[in-house]
């Protein structure tokens, strides 16, 4: 069963709302390269995790899912997709979900501004009805996006840094991945007039779930094939990203020597050797264990919210994230 | 006075920008003259002038960083990230300093500018005129409500 089915969310309504962000924009001619690029990107797949989280969040409010919730759900996907366009430029990735990355089709300058368009469209749309009382609608564009950039800066600063600490890794993961998910749950909840206390609990739940997600993402780079990933396997280490499996493997002196020789100019054989050494070690099991601990942390928060019928949706999210790598 | 305002704005921005981003804002006092002269037409408090100058500097710098994004640029990654961070910082800054109305006013113009550049039209956005239009609309609205109060009184 797909996640949106398990959550009893009509994904076609969500997808339509996302498409409308561009098709109903009077400033974008239909069939223009920009419209085509954006629609292809959002139509190319993805589980719509962030919009689903916005909707789940709204189920904790007294009003439930309304028009504003659906707009925020679409906005969350737009912000995520815009970040993917820029990520692909930063990582010099040629493929996105198995198709050519946007910048390979439009050129870098144009792709940067198509990503900007998506972010700017969200601010335009949500700003129209945002007063002093509901400034939270801008949390996705302001706080979550700024933190996402901070996570990218931290990743850039620590490229090939084999002395990275676990705390630094977790902070980067929080900024780069988890805070957007946490914000999705929170803004969804507030859009349905949820209490601040419950919104804060949902935010904490999203943080724990998001870190587990990022850890699993790091793991998938070692365990999945290039075909499944839609990008070359092992690409994190090739780009100097010191992920959790690498951090754990570095604790073994013999493995550390093989990993530390990997740099920006390393021959492919050295990288392959390090990747194989990490995969064959206990580092992957330890990585999975830490991911599981974050999911347990999320489960504790979900239990605290058991007076809400929607707490079952949080358990559905945990179950989905737990089974992601299998 | 003008130099002081621009200096104060730059100090405020540097204090609020994340040190992790490590962004420096190269901005000469001459670049702020146009906006200063527009703001002189309105009876704005010093702090508000500072906030509008801040919004202007952030948006100009964000746009410049992103215009420097080409596949062969040696600082491509830094330019993409700095532009992204500055656009989100703009929103944070404006909300913090209670200038959300200005964000709402500027939003369609900033969006249209992204569309134009994506389509290959690189003409700069005239932010000074736009901020002037916003201040003018705000001034007229205030006058209308003052007149309405006088009539009731």
UniProtKB/TrEMBL annotation, chain A:
<dbReference type="InterPro" id="IPR000092">
    <property type="entry name" value="Polyprenyl_synt"/>
</dbReference>
<dbReference type="GO" id="GO:0008299">
    <property type="term" value="P:isoprenoid biosynthetic process"/>
</dbReference>
<dbReference type="Pfam" id="PF00348">
    <property type="entry name" value="polyprenyl_synt"/>
</dbReference>
<keyword id="KW-0808">Transferase</keyword>
<keyword id="KW-0479">Metal-binding</keyword>
<dbReference type="GO" id="GO:0004659">
    <property type="term" value="F:prenyltransferase activity"/>
</dbReference>
<keyword id="KW-0460">Magnesium</keyword>
<dbReference type="InterPro" id="IPR008949">
    <property type="entry name" value="Isoprenoid_synthase_dom_sf"/>
</dbReference>
<dbReference type="InterPro" id="IPR033749">
    <property type="entry name" value="Polyprenyl_synt_CS"/>
</dbReference>
<comment type="similarity">
    <text>Belongs to the FPP/GGPP synthase family.</text>
</comment>
<protein>
    <submittedName>
        <fullName>Polyprenyl synthetase family protein</fullName>
    </submittedName>
</protein>
<dbReference type="GO" id="GO:0046872">
    <property type="term" value="F:metal ion binding"/>
</dbReference>
Automatic annotation (TrEMBL), chain B:
<protein>
    <submittedName>
        <fullName>Uncharacterized protein</fullName>
    </submittedName>
</protein>
């Amino acid at each position: 069963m797909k996640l949106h089915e398990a959550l009893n969310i009509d994904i076609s309504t969500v997808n339509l709302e996302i498409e409308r962000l561009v098709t109903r924009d009077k400033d974008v001619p239909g069939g223009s390269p920009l419209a085509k690029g954006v629609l292809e990107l959002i139509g190319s797949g993805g589980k719509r995790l962030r919009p689903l989280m916005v909707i789940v969040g709204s189920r904790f409010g007294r009003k439930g899912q309304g028009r504003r919730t659906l707009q925020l759900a679409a906005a969350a996907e737009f912000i995520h997709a815009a970040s993917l366009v820029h990520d692909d430029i930063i990582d010099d990735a040629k493929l996105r979900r198995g198709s050519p990355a946007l910048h390979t089709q439009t050129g870098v300058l144009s792709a940067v501004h198509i990503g900007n368009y998506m972010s700017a469209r969200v601010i335009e749309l949500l700003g129209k009805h945002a007063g002093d009382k509901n400034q939270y609608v801008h949390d996705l564009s302001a706080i979550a996006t700024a933190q996402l950039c901070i996570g990218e800066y931290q990743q850039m600063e620590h490229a090939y840094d084999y002395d990275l600490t676990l705390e630094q890794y977790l902070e980067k993961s929080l900024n780069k991945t988890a805070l957007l998910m946490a914000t999705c749950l929170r803004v969804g909840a507030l859009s349905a007039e949820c209490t601040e206390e419950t919104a804060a609990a949902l935010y904490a739940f999203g943080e724990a779930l998001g870190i587990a997600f990022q850890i699993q993402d790091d793991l998938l780079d070692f365990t999945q094939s290039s075909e499944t990933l839609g990008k070359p396997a092992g690409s994190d280490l090739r780009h100097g990203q010191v992920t959790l499996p690498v951090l754990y493997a570095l604790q073994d002196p013999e493995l550390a020597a093989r990993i530390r020789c990997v740099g920006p100019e390393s021959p492919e054989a050295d990288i392959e050797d390090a990747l194989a050494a990490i995969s064959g070690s206990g580092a992957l099991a330890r990585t999975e264990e830490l991911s599981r601990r974050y999911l347990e942390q999320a489960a504790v928060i979900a239990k605290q919210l058991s007076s809400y019928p929607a707490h079952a949706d949080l358990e559905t999210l945990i179950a989905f994230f737990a089974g992601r790598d299998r | 006075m003008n130099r002081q305002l621009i200096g104060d704005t730059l100090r405020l921005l540097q204090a609020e920008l994340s040190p992790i981003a490590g962004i420096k804002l190269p901005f000469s006092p001459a670049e702020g003259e146009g906006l200063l002269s527009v703001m002189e037409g309105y009876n704005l408090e010093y702090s508000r002038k500072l906030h509008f100058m801040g919004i202007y500097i952030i948006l100009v710098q964000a746009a410049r960083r992103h215009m420097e994004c080409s596949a062969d640029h040696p600082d491509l990654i830094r330019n993409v990230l700095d532009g992204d961070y500055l656009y989100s910082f703009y929103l944070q800054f404006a909300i913090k300093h209670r200038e959300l109305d200005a964000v709402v006013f500027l939003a369609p113009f900033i969006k249209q500018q992204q569309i134009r550049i994506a389509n290959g039209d690189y003409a700069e956005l005239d932010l000074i005129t736009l901020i002037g239009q916003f201040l003018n609309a705000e001034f007229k609205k205030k006058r209308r409500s003052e007149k309405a109060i006088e009539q009731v009184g």
